[in-house]
Amino acid sequence: MDRIFRVFVDSLRSNADLPALKTAMTDIVSALDLGVFAYLFEDHQFDAGVKLISNYPIAWTSHYLANGYQEIDPVIDKSRKTSEPFQWGYRHWSPQLHGPQIHLLEEAAGFGIQCGFTVPVRDSLTRIAAITFAAVDSDAKFARCVEKHGSLLQLLAILFHSRARLSLEPERSVSGVILSPREYECLEWAAKGKSAWAIGRILNISRRTAAFHLDNAKSKLGVRTISQAVALLAVSMQFTR
């Protein structure tokens, strides 16, 4: 298992494009005998719509997004309300579910998605992010697998979200200047009084890398100090709210 996890981490470090990220998660999910996964993401500040990385059947994900099912999906609804991972299954939901939600779960079961383990992921820039590991097998078999690998699945979800978000988020503008997602993120933390060292710890990057992104942001914005860049960020955010 250690080797499988190292391969997963190395894949995330060396690849940022969506197909490579999908392959990395597909490989480790398969190795854990969990079947399929779905990562759903909505940006907090930009109305860019829902983004999905998944190896669910394409017919199902296309149908799901086309019908806006994320608005009624009981899995997503619970992910919005809790930060704790949870198991779910078609037969285990509260009878309080309303008709469209029941219909959604029935449709999902028709595509082989009958039970799952969902890990909500929270950060300051995300409206909703959750990774669901699902299976077509019996609830009992899936539950045993989750019991055995639950902690690992939570770690996989956090690592995957951290990498995938950079690829999915739109570029961010400050005073009409486009910053990369990482430059913008570092600048936001600097606006909260964090040093390059602290930003590195928060984002799990080196102090030098954090300083590099901050320097790039200053250069693009045409300013000489972080304080000046932060001031431009503050003004820009006022006009985007």
Task: List the defining traits of the structure above.
2 domains; Arc Repressor Mutant, subunit A; 5-stranded antiparallel sheet; Beta-Lactamase; alpha+beta; 7 strands; two-stranded antiparallel ribbon; about 240 residues; single chain
Summarize the structure.
With 241 residues, the protein is α+β, with helices and mostly antiparallel strands. It contains ten helices and seven strands.
3D structure, described in words:
It is a single chain. This protein is α+β, with helices and mostly antiparallel strands and 241 residues long. It is built from 10 helices and 7 strands. It has helices at 2-14, 18-31, 58-66, 74-81, 99-110, 139-168, 181-191, 196-203, 207-221, 226-240; strands at 36-43, 51-54, 86-89, 115-120, 126-135, 172-174, 177-179. β4 (115-120) and β5 form a beta hairpin. α7 (181-191) packs across α9, α7 (181-191) crosses α10 (226-240) and α8 packs across α9. The termini are far apart.
In the residues, how many domains can be counted? 2
Q: How many distinct beta strands?
A: 7
SSE string: HHEEHHEHEEHEEHHHH
In terms of structural class, how would the helical and strand content be classed?
alpha+beta
The CATH class label of the largest domain is Alpha Beta
Mean pLDDT: 85
Instruction: Report the sheet-strand fraction.
Output: 15-25%
Q: CATH homologous superfamily of the largest domain - what is it?
A: Transcription factor LuxR-like, autoinducer-binding domain
* Spatial strand sequence of the major β-sheet: 2-1-5-4-3
Cα-based radius of gyration, to the nearest Å = 20 Å
Q: What is the percent of helical residues?
A: 55-70%
CATH architecture of the largest domain: 2-Layer Sandwich
Parts with pLDDT < 50 across at least 5 consecutive residues: none
CATH T-level topology of the largest domain: Beta-Lactamase
- Gap between N and C termini: 46 Å
SS element count, helices: 10
The coarse silhouette is globular
Sheet of most strands: 5 strands, antiparallel
